[in-house]
Structure formats: structure tokens, C-alpha cells
Amino acid sequence: MAGGDDVAFNAAMAPVLMAQPGESTLHFVRHLGEGLTLRRRAELVVRALADPATTRRSLSGHCEVAARLAARLELDDEVCHSLAHAYERWDGRGYPDGLAGDGVPIAIRIVSVARDVELWERNGGWTSASDVLLRRRGHAYDPAVTDAFVGDGPEWIGGLDDDPYAAVLDAEPAPQVIVDDARLDATLSAIADFTDLKSTYFRGHSSGVASLARAAAGVAGLASGEVDAIGRAALVHDVGRVGVASGIWDRVGPLTGEQWERVRLHPYLTDRVLRRSALLAPYAGVAGGHHERADGSGYPSGAGDDRLSVGTRILAAADVFHAMSEDRPHRGPLTRPDAVAQLREEVATGRLGQTEVDAVLGAAGERTTGQLIERPAGLTEREVDVLNLIARGRSNKEAAAELGISAKTVGHHVESIYAKAGVRTRAGAALFAMERGLLHP
Question: Torsion-angle region of residue 221: left (phi > 0), alpha (psi -120 to 50) or beta?
Fold first, then answer.
């Protein structure tokens, strides 16, 4: 969180999400900025405590993004509504809307208890879990739901050692949502945008790489089925990034040896996630190989040219070229001539293949850039400019400086963007921008 190890922070905060304010604040102070220096962590704590709305913004953003993702996956309205209120509490002290009692969706009243029972039982056994249940009964938890868990929890806990993936699939209620080939691209696009929320530097990356890789595959003369497969693999090539701390991706200076090893792990995580699903397994090899190089210098496996498919080689070149046009913590976006020169240098050193690079550059030359012909939701050109900046993490003041307008004017634009896009948080606005293809380098 805020440049630290968000994976560790989220794990530390999970057991106290529904705790009383004093307990959750103590955990917050202890774990905020995991992985950073003591001085930097102290700065973050002071800033967070000085702004009581920090927690509300963060959890409300989670809810909004989860609900939008569910809608894009075509889950029913009740599921979307429940996810939009994932952090509500029985006593009305939750987020985002402070719903109370029976006003909290029943699914959330059950899931919040089930989540905490699993966490506390895993770490401290049933006695620990039951103590938490009784302590939070009538506060965070619905008393009736709590009583059901207290009475039958030990029996239910016995099934937690089973494979959760298979158990969830077996328990899915009818009508089941089946993703067929016709819906797969839309589903993967939703996953791509969700993945790119990991860092403000990644917004729109996956969909941009997919568009370029698909076009390059066409330029290379591949069959339509191969073009589709490469495009799908490209959409989810960076899913593994979610398993690496945001502080590593956002680091301005050189990575430590340990941090670099974690970065090298993300394509492997992508491969493992995709192979878990029979529908997605065919795309795992290409997606997980996007950092491999023809001379064997890539990662995670160091596979050479003779072990890389044409799809993997095209995706690798597309990923490199597209990333060059994007902002990164340690550099700004490269100009088109500089990016082309660097990509050619990758060929000269034997890391990327000439054929694949030519296809990517040919595809990049054919793609249109510049002003949008049509802006969705009635957004003005200036609002699109503001949206681009806030979606990438700029504050109102920072956006104002880049656009040469006042912070107050930016604030008015942000309010208008929220109203037109139907969102309530910056995370929701960023997801809206990616969904509509509004982000540009």
C-alpha cells in the first residue's frame, strides 16, 4: 500500500476488516507501508491518520471495481449489488454506504462471517474463531448468521481441507454462467483491465498489448485462429503481476536482488493461473512466455528461440514495444523513433526475432492515433484529458499542473466525470477509462 508491500498489508489487515475501530487502526499502523523504510512508513501513517477518509476511499473503491467486474462478467444483478456493498456491517459502520441490519445484502452478511471464520480458524483454531464470532456479534455480524456459525461451524470447518477450487465449482447455484468461445474475448478483456489496476503505470497496458499483438499476427500472415489465440493470450499475459507487491512495480530506483526475483516470477504465476482452467490452459504457454527471449536470456525459464512458439515471439515483441510508449517509475514514455530504435537493437543483440519485430512495427504503423472521434458518456475533450491523468494516479493538483489549469477546475471536471461515467471513486473512473479505450500514452 502506498508504495509498500500491498500483498503483505492486505494479508495482515484481512482478519480485522470487521473488527472494532480501535483494533483495526492498530493493525493499520503496524502494517502500513510493509517493506518500506521506517521513516517512509512513519510518513505514511501520519498522512493516513490525518485523513480519516483514507479507509472509506480505499474500501469503497474495492467495492465499485468488484461490482463493475462482475457486471462485465455478466453475473446477475444481485451478485453485482452484493459486491458493491462488500464491506458493509450489521451496525451500519461499514462501507461504502453505511447500510445497517437487514439493509445489508444477505450474501454479504454471510460471506463476511465465513471469510473471518476461515481466517481465524486457520491461524488459531476453532476456539479463536468462535471468540471472534461472539465478540463481533451484533456489531459487524448479523446475530442470526453468527449463531448459525457458532452452532454448526465445527462441522463446516471439517470440509476446508478439500480443494476449494473444485468445491466452489460444485457448489455454484443454477443457472450456471458458462463462458463459451463467443464470450471469451469479453471475459478476458475484463480480467485484463482488472489486472492493470495493480499499478497506475499499467492502466490500459494489457488491452493495448493485445491490440498490437493481434494486429502483428495478422501482418505476419497467421491464420485467423492463431491471431485470436495470440490476442487472447496477450489480454491475460500479465495476470501474474497481481501476485507481486505494488511497491516493487512502483519503485523508482534499482530493484534489490530479492525484488528482481519476484518480478521474474510473474510470468510463471500467469502460466499457473491459466493452466488451472481447462478453457484458458491453451493460452498459458504464450502468455507465460512473454518475457522469454530468442537468445535464452529471458525469464522465467530462459527458453531459447527453438523452444518459443511464433505466438510467444510476437507477444514478446509487442509487449516490449508497447511498454516503451508508457510511463514508468524510472522513466517517461519513449518517443516513437527512440522506441523503434530500441526494438531494432533487441533484434541486433539476438533477443528478439527480425520477423516478429517487423510484424509489430508494421502493425504499429497501421494503428490510428490522435484525437478520439467519439467520446463516450458525453465526456468533453478536456474531461478525457483529466480522466487520463487521474486514472494514472495523479492528484488534482498534479493534473492541474500538467494541464495548465487550476486544481479547483480539475475538481469540477472530476465531479462531472464521475456523474457522466456513473462512478464514485478514482478506481472506478480508471476502470471506466480502460473499458472505453480512453487511455492513451
Answer: left
